[in-house]
Each structure stands twice: as structure tokens, then as C-alpha cells.
Amino acid sequence: MPQQSVDETSSANTTAQTTVTAVAPVRLEASASSPEQALEQLPGLVTGTAWQTRPTTGAYSFRYLAVGDGNVTLRRSQMRGYVRGIVAPDDAYVVVLVLGGVVSLDLLRGGGAVDNGTPALMPTERRAVVEARNHDAVMVHLDRAFVRSVAEERHGLPSGGLHLDEHTAPTADAVTRWRQVLESARRVLAEHGVATTAWSDATRAVAVAFLALYPPKAAEPSSALWAPRNARIRRAVDHVHEHAAEPIAVSDLAAVSGLSVRAVQESFQRLFGMPPSAYVRYVRLQRVRGDLLRLDAASSSVSEVARRWGFAHLGRFSAEYTTRYGEYPKTTLHR
Fold first, then answer.
1. What is the C-alpha to C-alpha distance for residues 276 and 237, in angstroms, rounded to an integer?
2. CB-based contacts of 46-49 (< 8 A; 24+ apart in sequence)
3. Most exposed residue of 36, 102, 233, 321, measured as fewest CB within 10 angstroms of its CB?
4. For 175-206, b where at least 16 C-beta lie within 10 A, e where not — what string?
5. How many other CB atoms are there within 10 angstroms of residue 323's CB atom?
């Protein structure tokens, strides 16, 4: 994406020729000429904590711009200086494209500097330490629900079952397509604004290109779930993902799938190697782990997260969690 990509984007054009579904526009701007000014603004721009920043060589400067809507925003961050913070996952996937300087992601997990010009996905399920020096970077924020809706349409993934691997190395073709789509989206913003069919089409193209960069994987362990003959049991699986925090009985799954209780039990055992009740716990443990990795240990507790996802017996929950993930839930929360 050319360096003029975000900061030359104009504000929204309100004369759209075609009525489209309204999505809240986004425009954020910030600038600073000192570390103190930057620290006042960073929390309102990026989901993170423990920010540190200082001059490097030359006069300190910071500039940030985000333009788009609730589905997709194109952002650019430029700083003459050093910055470090702990960034937490939120409702968006974030792809970083470094144009200049040095940007390092996921330092707690041994991550290093991002290759300039190569897209990098911010960790999607846990907090990460990020660090940058004299950086110039474009970030694309994609709403998770929006991406999931596109993924479901294209890949048949169940609701709540979208999993991306930030360590996937994108193919050269996918990177080329990503850059092309972003440049096209930038032009649409400049010429038409967000409340237009052109922008709606552009955001969808960005989501499709994103899914080509990081092909989605289903949370379920069996690809046989997508066979036509399993269409009805997929309804039961979707129900588990959509209502994981609520009481779920095998009879509920039978009702939503149109199968008998026995057929549901046999199908889960055949597809997942476990009964429906165990699969429900499997999904709930995933949700608990996601929350523990995202939440701040100072204001959250393992017990409240576990109860939120339907685990009433905390001792039994802790043992099951430790067996599955190889660490105590409290350890996860305090990472």
C-alpha cells in the first residue's frame, strides 16, 4: 500500500447515489509533539495499557489517523520516537503493514520485528506486548462479526467457529491481493465516502482478502461435519456455539436439529469422539480461555469468568481446564 494511503483519505462524502445499510462511520485523528501529549491520546486510539514512549533522535512527533466505518477502518500511525505497550484483543482483527522503522509484535511470546511490507496479524486471542521505534505503519481493523459473516458465507463455518492463526505465513499472491484491495478501498473512501454502495463493496473485498491472508479454520476437530449428510447436526453445533453461556440439554440439540436424542448422541460421538455434553464443555472451556487471555487480572477473577460460561463447580472446572491447556486458569489470567 503506497505511503499516502491513509493520511490522504478525505472525509466521508454525504452525496451517495445509492442507499446502503448504515454502519457507523469512524474517523479518529491525533497528533503530538511530546511523549506527554502522546500518552494522553494513546488510550483513546488503541486498546492497550502500560504505554511508554520517549524520544529517540531528532524532534519527537506522533501522528495517527483512522478512517472507515464499524466494519473496516484504515489506520496509519507514524512516530518519531519509541513506544511500547500491552495491546489486548477486542472486537476487531488487526493487520499491520510496516512501511518504515521497526515494529515488533508479541514480545511476551518471543515475537520479533515485523518484515517491512509484509502483513502481520496481531494476536487474536491474547494480550501482546508491542514495541516500535521511529515507525510508519498502516493498520487495518476488521470487525470480527463482519469477518465471520463473510467467512460463513464463503466457507460454511458455524457461527462462533472462526479461528485464525496469526503465525500463518501469507502466500505471495494473497499479499499482492491484500495490497491491491487496500489501495482500492482507499480510493473509494477518497472519492465516495463510507455511506455508499461502493464502500460497502470495498469492505467486503477487504474481508475476503483478509481471509485469503489467514485462511480460517473451524473450531471443530472433524471436517466431516461439512458433508451434506450432516446438515442437520450442524444446526446442533451452531446452537452450542451461539448459546454456550446458557443451559444446553441434549433434548435442546435434538429439537433444533430435528433429530432424535439418540441420533444426536451418536452423531457427536462419530464426528467429535465425545458425547454432546463433553462437546459443550469443550466449547465453554475455549470461551473461558479467550476471556482469561483478554481480561485484566486487576479487575477480573477466574471464578466470575468460569461461572459466566456455565461452570458451577470451580474445583472440577479448574482440573478440567488444567488438563486441557497445561496450566492453571489463574496463570492464564495473569499473563
1. 9
2. 46/85, 46/87, 47/87, 47/88, 47/89, 47/90, 48/85, 48/86, 48/87, 48/88, 48/130, 49/85, 49/86, 49/88, 49/296
3. 36
4. bebbbebbebbbebbeebbbbbebbbebbbbb
5. 9
- Name residue 129's beta-bridge partners: 86
Q: How far apart, in whole angstroms, are the C-alpha atoms of residue 202 and residue 200?
A: 5
Determine the Cα–Cα distance for residues 243 and 246; give it in Å rounded to an integer. Answer: 5
C-alpha separations of 63 from 37, 80, 133, 181, 225 in Å: 11, 9, 14, 24, 48
How far apart are the C-alpha atoms of 70 and 284, rounded to whole Å?
A: 28
Separation between Cα atoms, residue 307 and residue 290, nearest integer Å: 14
Question: What is the spatial distance between Cα 129 and Cα 85, in angstroms, rounded to a whole number?
Answer: 6
DSSP line for 1-41: --TTTTTTPPPPPS--SS------EEEEEEEESSHHHHHHH
Q: Which amino acid is at 321?
A: Y
Question: Is residue 167 a contact partner of residue 181, using CB atoms and an 8 Å limit?
Answer: no
Which cell numbers hold the place of 2?
Answer: 503506497
Instruction: Tell me, rounded to whole angstroms, the distance of Cα 146 from its chain centroid.
Output: 10
The answer, as to whether pTM is greater than 0.70, is no
Instruction: Give 113's DSSP letter.
Output: B
